[in-house]
Amino acid sequence: MAPIAVGDSLPDGTLSFFDENDDLQNVSVHSLAAGKKVVLFGVPGAFTPTCSTKHVPGFIEKEAEFKAKGVNEIFLVSVNDPFVMKAWAQTYSGNKNVKFLADGAAKYTHAL
């Protein structure tokens, strides 16, 4: 399979997250991204040192630059369960822009 490039359509799959009411949501990537320009990035695991101190903060800090380029949403995907992803997201108290999405069984990751 060829790698995904800028401008390509993402494959569909189901990812999980806790919404602002703390309700677990299982949603398709296509529904999350419908009509939007999105940045999708993945990391090997929640709470890994480099991802926690470099990757995630870098995307949080660059949010305004992404918005200026027309990006509507920033999605972080990791092969963890939604409870771990929620806990990890809570360590970034100032984050309102990167959505932490769980791919617990790695099905979506394999589709990429």
From TrEMBL:
GO terms for biological process: cell redox homeostasis; cellular response to oxidative stress; hydrogen peroxide catabolic process. One of its GO terms (molecular function) is thioredoxin peroxidase activity. GO terms for cellular component: cytoplasm. It comes from the Eukaryota. Pfam families: Redoxin. The keyword Nucleotide-binding does not apply. CDD domains: PRX5_like. It is an enzyme of class 1 (oxidoreductase). Residues 4-112 form the Thioredoxin domain. It catalyses: [glutaredoxin]-dithiol + a hydroperoxide = [glutaredoxin]-disulfide + an alcohol + H2O. Keywords: Antioxidant, Oxidoreductase, Peroxidase, Redox-active center. InterPro entries: PRX5-like, Redoxin, Thioredoxin-like_sf, Thioredoxin_domain. Its EC number is 1.11.1.25. Coiled coil: none annotated. The active site is at 51 (cysteine sulfenic acid (-soh) intermediate). Thiol-specific peroxidase that catalyzes the reduction of hydrogen peroxide and organic hydroperoxides to water and alcohols, respectively. Plays a role in cell protection against oxidative stress by detoxifying peroxides. Belongs to the peroxiredoxin family. Prx5 subfamily. This is Glutaredoxin-dependent peroxiredoxin. It comes from Cannabis sativa (Hemp).
